[in-house]
């Protein structure tokens, strides 16, 4: 068993993970020419020199480093000579600092790296949506050293087994995401996030997370959607090891605190967690980081102060950039929205210990029926999910109001 874990660039994190089965740590600058699966707004701000020192320390502990280059779209700029030269220059720096792996989703980028930077090993991102034997074989032929399979097939055990038997490169699964099962927003969402972390984007990191707003409303109206999501419990790792899955990815690059990352690593390493499953899921959380003392009832000015007290100068500039691009009538909702995101997970409790046996159904069934015909997750939700309905109703009202403003 080995894990690929996120970094928040805190050196304390490296000091505290020495006794865990960590194969590699992944991370990226907050803004790059390629971009990635998280927007600049929610990523820690560090310099290139800082990253170099961090990678040196990582290697001294025998841990490998994976650099993220997994945005799904480059606006066709990759075919222009100006952008191409900048891309190669960035890859030269990535290789120079001793990066072991790069995580990509664009096939053309895989070929560039394999052709010009053969020392770098390539991991295919879950953003590439490798969900069939054919796709897996194609990426393997391009030179992939490891493929992170589409999160949506995590519970399709028969397909996982067939993919494992069909290719030789390593396979990895994402453990603790909570995207909607069969999410209709997923392709668009990653595209939005990719552009929101690219230096070349004319909006300079500005984005509004329509997809987050929409899927949160869906999950709150029907909490069973949180069980349908394809996360993997710590207790169920062995079911995937039996298939031959080589490694597991722990999510958590959205300004997660060191304590949160360590708690999640500990849970999966020990294959056991007692408490709220959402404590270790890369769940809804604000760009300003977790704040247990934030209150939904805070007035507008308090919300503004709360947000800026958690941000760097560059992040404050991102917020100001955002303010300049939205209608004045939305200011209050936007700031209260960001502040509220810190308390959402405390309003929902998924009893992880009572989920024992939940996975068994999926080892024999592929979810081919509609959820309305099946009802399996709906019945489990009644037993293991507890809601603070009053608080959840407040979130839904605000999110619906924001959605109405955006679409109307």
* Fraction of helical residues: 40-55%
Query: What is the CATH class of one domain?
Result: Alpha Beta
Tertiary shape? globular
Tell me the major beta sheet. 8 strands, parallel, barrel
Low-pLDDT stretches: 286-303, 305-310
Chain oligomer state: single chain
- The largest beta-sheet arranges its strands as 1-2-3-4-5-6-7-8
CATH topology of one domain: TIM Barrel
Structural class: alpha/beta
Radius of gyration: 21 Å
CATH architecture of one domain: Alpha-Beta Barrel
Q: Count the E strands.
A: 10
Number of helices: 18
Strand content: 5-15%
Distance between the termini: 49 Å
Summarize the helix and strand pattern as letters: EHEHEHEHEHEHEHHHHEHHHHEHHHEH
Mean pLDDT across all residues, rounded?
88
CATH superfamily of one domain: Aldolase class I
Task: Describe this protein with a few key phrases.
alpha/beta, two-stranded antiparallel ribbon, 8-stranded parallel beta barrel, 44% helix, 408 residues, TIM Barrel
